[in-house]
Design a protein that fits this description.
heterodimer, A: 284 residues, mainly alpha, 10 helices, 0% strand, globular, B: 338 residues, alpha/beta, Rossmann fold, 2 domains, six-stranded mixed β-sheet
Chain lengths: 284, 338
């Protein structure tokens, strides 16, 4: 019964999320948007990199930055995909209360709503990396890719991001205003401290522990290593750790943050019920 | 709790803590106070009261959306606070006066999705959607995106969403709010047919339309400022006033005449006032018809002209006036001004 309720919640939420995500415009415009958006983001970074390094695209730093930035698309997409469903349903569609009184598991429903963003995010990541390989000489060779490590890391990371999204969704439930900024602010903090576009060693020593505590740091490192192993290991931050050690740390931190996320969501859900915030609309 | 009860509340209370500025102390708003109600299975029960009376708060508590601050409530045999997961499969709710729903989805997609959340087999759900849309006259709009529907049609779609899952207990919060006369009539007809089809179905309806409560409900609870003031069948409630004579009088502007002045007259039990274009409408409860002479005298003293006079049978509005001392419209404007 519990399994069927969970599966029903997840399946229908994913279906709904996909229709919302893909139906806001006609298919052609949606396809153009899906291609142009990630390429524009990557282009900004590439141009900035080119100006700062005077066009030194052969440096190991370039694939480090490029791949970190590409995979970081998942952070925003999956995390805010889950938490934004609260804002969407409560404020825009005014359906959150109907979801709450339906016999479904709300956390599983919210995770399901994130699936669509995961799919569009995956398309964006693929396009960004493909453009990097085809036009910017990102040294990614299919024969050298550690596929097992890549797939395991990707799946673990996406689950970890979805659970972090649940944490944000809980906080969003209790916040009546400025709820839209929570996801953006968190993604911004992770962008700085996760070594997405620069190695953690660039940061002052006293600030680095924040990065070491973020699961995204190890996730991005492993993704780079699985795709362009030698290049990634050129940076000292985590060079002393083997792939398995980093995977272990990632797994441990993912479980830790996962448990915290579920507990925070439960707590916030209770607060929202106490304060009558489940159907609270601000028209903000 | 007896199995014959669909809803039971005991000393149910809900207090909202209102946020002011940082310097102000938190204010409290008592939305529900010691509400004791029982609704039998198969009953169409009405909650009647002005806006802000606590009707929606009570529905939110009963549908597990809001925790009570005191007391308890059981719906379909389960405690709404302690056992929400047992309550939810057995209930559904529709709120009137709002445009909820996923605008990018068609009417059918919206409804089908909700049926799936309740675990209905897809084929059965589709058949039921078509049948219900037919009943509310919306079958031809089945494949229209809900964002392209008028407010009234969107509300009808929501009403279908509520009935679609065939709940044991259905909560309708102002279901005809914002609907035109024809659509409201359709909805009322639909509600009656739905209840007739299965004697075990229970419906709790909130409304501030007296006629709606009178026409539809088996029993009505009159609620104001979070308190249940009376609860009985509409006819029993009205019978409380049968001993009085009620007149509705339209007059020219009042020249300082107030309901309090009117109530100071011997044999005038209650006086309620509503502004109308070019004057006022009085509802007067008199001990007997002879008191009318005193009323006319008072009008004459204040140079108020009588434009129209009707002797009325008591309505639920009169019951409300008798219980609260003000008409529902006055009570709402009084609440707004506070």
């Amino acid at each position: 019964m519990q399994t069927s309720t969970s599966w029903r919640s997840f399946r229908m939420a994913a279906w709904l999320g996909w229709l919302i995500e893909s139906n806001w415009t006609d298919p052609f415009l949606f396809a153009v948007y899906s291609i142009v958006k990630p390429l524009s983001g990557a282009a900004i970074l590439v141009i900035m990199y080119g100006i700062i390094t005077q066009g030194n695209y052969d440096s190991a730093l370039f694939p480090y930055i490029y791949l970190g930035n590409a995979f970081y698309i998942y952070v925003g997409a999956v995390m805010t995909g889950v938490s934004w469903a609260v804002v969407d349903d409560r404020e825009h569609y005014k359906t959150l209360k109907y979801m709450y009184i339906a016999p479904i598991y709300i956390p599983v429903y919210l995770l399901g709503r994130g699936v669509a963003r995961f799919i569009t995010g995956s398309i964006a990541v693929f396009i960004t990396i493909a453009a990097g390989v085809l036009f910017l000489k990102v040294p990614l060779h299919f024969a050298d890719i550690n596929w097992i490590l890549f797939i395991v890391t990707l799946i673990l990371g996406v689950v970890m991001l979805a659970l972090l999204g649940l944490l944000l969704a809980g906080i969003t439930l209790t916040v009546a205003r400025h709820e839209g900024f929570i996801g953006e602010a968190t993604a911004g903090v992770l962008y700085i401290f996760s070594g997405a576009v620069f190695p953690l060693d660039v940061l002052p020593a006293w600030i680095r522990p924040i990065g070491y505590f973020m699961p995204t740091t190890y996730w991005l490192e492993l993704l780079r290593r699985s795709l362009v192993g030698n290049v990634a290991q050129a940076f000292p931050t985590l060079a002393n750790f083997t792939n398995m050690e980093i995977l272990g740390i990632l797994l441990g931190l993912s479980i830790f943050f996962g448990v915290i996320s579920v507990q925070v969501f439960r707590y916030c859900d209770g607060i929202a019920r106490e304060r009558g915030l489940i159907d609270h609309t601000t028209n903000y | 709790m007896s199995n014959s009860l669909a809803i039971e509340t005991q000393n149910l209370g809900r207090i909202y803590k209102l946020r002011g500025s940082k310097k102000e102390t938190r204010k409290e708003l008592v939305a529900l106070q010691d509400v004791n109600l029982t609704v039998q299975r198969g009953e169409l029960f009405g909650l009647l009261g002005p806006n802000g009376a606590g009707k929606t708060t009570l529905i939110k508590v009963l549908t597990t959306l809001l925790s009570p601050t005191s007391g308890w409530a059981r719906v379909a045999g389960a405690d709404v606070h302690a056992e929400p997961n047992l309550v939810r499969p057995r209930i559904n709710m529709v709120s009137g006066g709002e445009s909820s729903g996923y605008g990018l989805l068609t009417v059918k997609e919206n409804l089908w999705m909700f049926s799936q959340f309740y675990g209905a087999p897809s084929k059965e759900a589709n058949e039921r959607i078509e049948a219900l849309l037919e009943m509310v006259g919306m079958k031809d709009r089945m494949h229209t995106k809900s964002s392209d529907l008028s407010t009234g049609l969107r509300q009808k779609m929501n009403i279908v969403r509520g009935f679609l899952t065939d709940p044991e207990v259905l909560f309708l919060d102002e279901p005809t709010l914002g609907l035109d006369v024809g659509a409201s009539r359709d909805v009322r007809k639909f509600i009656i047919e739905w209840l007739k089809a299965d004697k075990e179905r229970t419906l709790l309806l909130t409304t501030h339309y007296m006629v709606e409560a009178d026409e539809l409900c088996d029993r009505v609870a009159i609620i104001n400022k979070g308190k249940v003031l009376a609860c009985d069948t509409p006819s029993a409630l009205k019978q409380r006033l049968q001993k009085d004579v009620t007149f509705e009088i339209e007059t020219s502007p009042l020249n300082g005449l107030t309901p309090q002045m009117m109530e100071e007259q011997p044999e005038v039990k209650k006086a309620a006032l509503t502004d109308i274009e070019g004057g006022a409408r009085w509802k007067l409860s008199l001990v007997d018809e002879s008191a009318l002479a005193r009323v006319f005298n008072l009008f004459a003293q204040k140079d108020v002209k009588v434009m129209n006079l009707n002797k009325r049978q008591p309505t639920l509005e009169d019951v409300f006036v008798d219980l609260v001392g003000r008409s529902m419209a006055e009570e709402e404007s009084n609440e707004r001004s506070q």
